[in-house]
Design a protein that fits this description.
The chain has 2 domains: about 160 residues, FAD/NAD(P)-binding domain; about 200 residues, 3-Layer(bba) Sandwich (FAD/NAD(P)-binding domain), CATH 3.50.50. It is about 30% helix and about 25% strand. It has 11 helices and 26 strands. The strands form 9 sheets. The protein has a 5-stranded parallel beta sheet with strand order 5-2-1-9-20, with helices on one face. A 4-stranded parallel beta sheet has the order 13-12-11-17. Strands 6-7-8 form a 3-stranded antiparallel beta sheet, with no helix packed on it. It is globular, with a radius of gyration of 23 Å. The two termini are about 35 Å apart.
Length: about 475
């Protein structure tokens, strides 16, 4: 790598990092601080996309509170010495110590490693319900957030000219499944978006809109104490959200969400904000895994039985040394600290030292509930309302990498407070030269579909599916 690595010639050792989420990115950033030119170690990070997604801001992207590109950072601009490779990890050979990566254009190359870091995250889980997977939206990726925003606006556009009252009610009903921290954030932001946007549609009143949050437990945000759960419930209801507790989604179709033991909810929109599943590559890899498919690691973040292999973040079951028998939760703050710690362990190991155990106690958990509303715990201290909302924004603005993005998000938030949210439906058109037509990907409910919901009038059957 020459000048970029800080040393000339061929490296003596190679560290290969798989995944560009919080775990992978902060491991690489930590290694840039820990490794010296005399270590003669090349660090390479592989990710399927060439940007780092700051996932705590995804719900705000979906609700038009911030611009789409401001929640992401180009990975190449985040590092001084780390090599970045765009591609999908498709193979691992621990005996040869190589990883196979498929690059754009379907070319495949093997990358050797001396130390391997697995930080591939997790995917959305649906508890085996294929119909829910087919007929729901999620907020797991940047594309998911853009898709949800476009879909919500498309529902308003379609309802504005729909003459059939039954179909119109379906279009204006938005169901969010999952009352965890992510679910209440998505629900609050979606509620803000559709209710603010509806002010620009003369035919749609606030009474026409239904936003429904469905939670299987007997209270919202079980990770917080009961008082904060009660506050969350009361505040969401005050904002116009219908909350269904002890209610479990057990199926979905294009025009309804089925609730176990209750009447189905007629709707064209189901947002799935609960459940996680292992990364498909991890599932099929030779890495040791527990009964649920998560990578097994020790307290040093080492993968047992595979020398030189480490894992962290959502894809791994990281023991909580401070609470024996328990594991670290899957959250950004944990992944950031795991990344910093792993960087120190790898640097220490390469110099002949002994790695140390990862010890971390959560700083707390927080969520926004829409504009000016939030809830959470900072250590043992409960916070709620405007104070929690302000703390949430301040903390994540500080955590957002690169000053450029911090300034852009600050401007977005200020503009949102002054002017409201942009309700333009952003569509991606691809010109068809032969037919002089357009192919587009915007309002389809199904991620695999490119057809928008039927627009108006009698006979419209509506759409289907983070």
């Amino acid at each position: 790598m020459g000048e970029r690595d800080g040393f000339g010639g061929k490296p003596d050792r190679r560290v290969l990092i798989l995944g560009g989420g919080f775990g992978g990115i902060y491991t690489a950033l930590g290694l840039e601080k820990q490794l010296k030119p005399e270590d003669r170690t090349e660090v390479t990070l592989v990710n399927a996309e060439n940007f780092f997604l700051f996932t705590p801001l995804l719900a705000e992207v979906a609700s038009s509170s911030i611009d789409t590109s401001h929640a992401i950072n180009p990975i190449r601009r985040m590092f001084k010495r780390t090599r970045f490779v765009e591609g999908e990890v498709v193979g691992l050979d621990p005996d040869k110590r190589t990883v196979t990566v498929r690059h754009p254009g379907d070319t495949e190359y093997d990358y050797p490693y001396d130390q391997l870091v697995v930080a591939l995250g997790a995917r959305q889980g649906y508890f085996g319900m294929k119909d829910v997977q087919e007929h729901s939206l999620t907020v797991k990726t940047l594309g998911d957030a853009i898709h949800l925003r476009n879909w919500a606006i498309q529902m308003l556009e379609t309802a504005d000219v729909e003459r059939d009252s039954v179909r119109r009610a379906e279009l204006l009903t938005f169901v969010v499944a999952g009352g965890n921290l992510t679910g209440v954030e998505v629900c609050g932001e979606l509620n803000d978006l559709v209710r603010q946007a509806a002010e620009s549609y003369p035919t749609i009143s606030q009474r026409d809109i239904r936003v429904i949050l469905v939670e299987a437990a007997n209270r919202l945000v079980p990770a917080l104490d009961e008082n904060l759960s009660r506050f969350t419930l009361q505040r969401l209801r005050a904002l116009g959200v219908e909350v269904m507790l002890t209610s479990r989604v057990d199926g979905a179709s294009e025009r309804e969400v089925r609730i176990k033991g209750q009447e189905p909810i007629p709707t064209r929109t189901l947002v799935w904000a609960t459940g996680v599943a292992p990364n498909p590559f991890v599932q099929d890899s030779p890495l040791p895994k527990d009964e649920k498919g998560w990578v097994t690691v020790d307290a040093h973040l080492r993968v047992p039985g595979l020398p030189g292999v480490w894992a962290l973040g959502d894809c791994a079951r990281v023991p909580d040394v401070l609470s024996p028998g328990k594991f670290q939760t899957s959250a950004a703050q944990q992944a950031i600290r795991e990344g910093h710690h792993l960087a120190r362990n790898i640097a220490t190991y390469l110099r002949g030292g002994a790695p140390t155990e990862f010890r971390y106690r959560s700083l707390g958990q927080m969520a926004t509930l829409g504009r000016f509303n939030g809830v959470g715990l900072i250590g043992p201290v409960p916070v709620s309302g405007f104070v929690a909302w302000a703390i949430w924004r301040t903390y994540y603005l500080y955590r957002l990498p690169r000053l450029e993005k911090q300034l852009r998000v600050m401007v977005d938030w200020t503009a949102d407070l002054v002017f409201g949210r942009d309700i333009s439906q952003i569509q991606t058109y691809v010109s068809n030269v032969a037919g002089d037509e357009h192919q587009h990907d915007s309002g389809a409910r199904h991620p695999q579909s490119s057809q928008p919901p039927d627009a108006v009038g009698a006979g419209s059957s509506g759409g289907a599916d983070s």
